[in-house]
Write a structure and sequence with these properties.
It catalyses: 5-(methylsulfanyl)-D-ribulose 1-phosphate = 5-methylsulfanyl-2,3-dioxopentyl phosphate + H2O. It is built from 5 helices and 9 strands; from the N terminus they run αββββαβαββαββα. It has 214 residues and is α+β, with helices and mostly antiparallel strands. The N and C termini lie far apart (36 Å). Bound molecules: 5-S-methyl-1-O-phosphono-5-thio-D-ribulose (MRU) and zinc ion. 5-S-methyl-1-O-phosphono-5-thio-D-ribulose binds at residues 32-36, 48, 50-51, 82-84, 102, 155.
């Protein structure tokens, strides 16, 4: 993925969504149509379409959703926006995110099953890539906390738990959904990418430390 593809003024959000999904597919984060991305720009949200292989998406298939009117233009082939659209919109509105990434990463699914209500980790260098919520980053000795909410039969049914989470964790940049996956957000696509890469790495470290009994 080139620097240009993550630069808000150099690349269209639809291109950024497609190139990030191709990258995430290699990590097995968006296999079998799972996962998706929403990017907010002005009063529009660019959202991956529902039910298609996310690594094969083309920019013209990305849905342009008007946040003010709650309407959208169908992507090429009459595609609908992701089932995660209400969750993306809520994270834009409640926490000021501009990019939300959803994956079905194996590390996320395993950690969501092992930890009860919150994943937490401290004393790992990569924690320093994570935001504290006040414009600075956490220190390696700080604790990164990621809330965990229960899964639901349909994505829209996750809304009450997501809304509760945004009030209890106003500085959060991620939430795990039990046995489902991970949502990570940031003020730009580039930052959201850095956060999700760091979080997945930290989830894997936690799983391996546990396996080793450390
Ligand atoms: C493998 S189906 C997964 C979906 O139910 C959902 O959780 C998901 O991640 C993607 O939904 P989509 O509507 O295709 O954007
Ligand atoms: Zn999902």
């Amino acid at each position: 993925m080139s620097k240009r593809e993550l630069h808000p003024t150099m690349s269209h959000p639809s291109e950024t969504i497609c190139s990030m999904c191709r990258l995430f597919y290699v990590n097995k984060w968006v296999l079998g149509t799972g996962g998706g991305i929403g990017i907010k720009q002005d009063h529009f949200a660019y959202i991956s379409p529902s039910g298609i292989e996310k690594e094969l998406m083309e920019p013209e298939q990305i849905i342009k959703y008007d946040i003010q009117t709650d309407t959208y233009e169908s992507g090429a082939g009459g595609l609908k926006p992701s089932a995660c659209t209400p969750l993306f919109l809520e994270l834009f509105k409640a926490l000021g995110a501009s990019c939300v990434i959803h994956t079905h990463s194996i590390n996320a699914v395993l950690c969501s099953a092992i930890y009860e209500n919150e994943f937490n980790i401290t004393d790992v260098e990569q924690i320093k890539a994570m935001p504290k919520g006040d414009g600075t980053n956490l220190r390696n000795v700080d604790t990164l906390r990621i809330p965990i909410i229960d899964n639901a039969p349909e994505e829209q049914d996750l809304m009450p738990a997501l809304e509760k989470m945004t009030k209890e964790y106003p500085n959060a940049c991620a939430v795990l959904v039990k046995r489902h996956g991970l949502f990570v957000w940031g003020p730009t696509p580039k930052k959201a990418k850095i956060y999700i890469e760091s979080i997945d790495y930290l989830l894997e470290v936690a799983l391996k430390l546990r396996q080793l009994g450390i």
